[in-house]
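Onboarding guide, step 5: your first structure request.
Type a short instruction followed by the sequence, for example:

Predict the 3D structure of this protein.
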Amino acid sequence: MEILQHIWGSTPEGEGIILYTMRNSRGSEVQLCNIGASIVSVKFADRNGNIDDVALGYEDPLSYIGDGAASGKSVGRVAGRIARGHMTIDGVEYRLEVNNGPNHLHGGSKGFANRYWEGRVETNRVVFSYVSEDMEQGYPGELIVEAIYDFDDEDNLEITYIAKSNKTTVVNLTNHLYWNLDGEGSDTTILDHELRLSCAQVLEMDTVQIPTGKLLDVKGTALDFTTFRRFGDEIDTEFNNIRNYRGYDHCFAVDNYKKNILQEVGELRSHKSGRKVTVLSSSPAAVLYTGNWLAGGCPKTKSGKYYQDYAGVAIECQAYSDAVNHPEFPSIELKADELYCNKIVFKLGTF
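The system replies with structure tokens like these:
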């Protein structure tokens, strides 16, 4: 494994934006940067041996600051939505920034995705670290966070998020990587991609993308990915607000979840390229987002263009949406001095 690093640019405050390149013996490559502890590119071969970049991303490093799509970024302190920006921890009410309709999203406009992380190389891995101050973006407790990236010669990309707080708080970290297995500059959408999920249930959602607390069986519905399903087939149906959201933006419950146990979540594939990505996670849920609002909201891309809607798909391994306001969901509460850990593995390959 070869890891290279160079200065890609600088922030408005003059801090260096570092690009890390992890390259294995197959010629596959993962690039990372320290704005948002982000994945900038993922390159691996298709069925014919052609290596291409399959991760959405931007031409200018400064575009990784404040992009609404959070492309490839580590999002937190709490990924997903918190209803009306309101939560209660240990009997104390907290008000968070409302930055997505009536709700709080991805830790706020200055959440982890838009922060400068310190980066370092440790032998064959890249480690990013960040210290979130007490009451930063409204969250209690000083939180020390690390995002650890490993990439091996078998084309396995592993992300490990760990965190520890000095006060009881809430934590839910994930990566917001968008895949297009035909190539990020291919000008194709992911509507012909197929997905299989080990998820027999999905959270019922209201019109503003907050769970009602009820879990729905997916069998026989447009959200049934228990066997491979093409995204484009039923992306305009009314079931569970799919049409209202302009596509898939739903939180699926992982079958047979056990805390801190890594298990397979599903597999994404493209018949056009023959590429596939198998996803494993230690989290109880996976949020499927088909890039329903990418058009007009993204900076210039790595290929010098602008993404259209459905240009990429994110499979975000995390806790249930709005879990802090649903005691019946797996808890995202982190007690003082306890260790938080979430591991995500993307196994890259062909079929």
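Each response can be followed by summary notes, for example: The chain has a mean pLDDT of 97.
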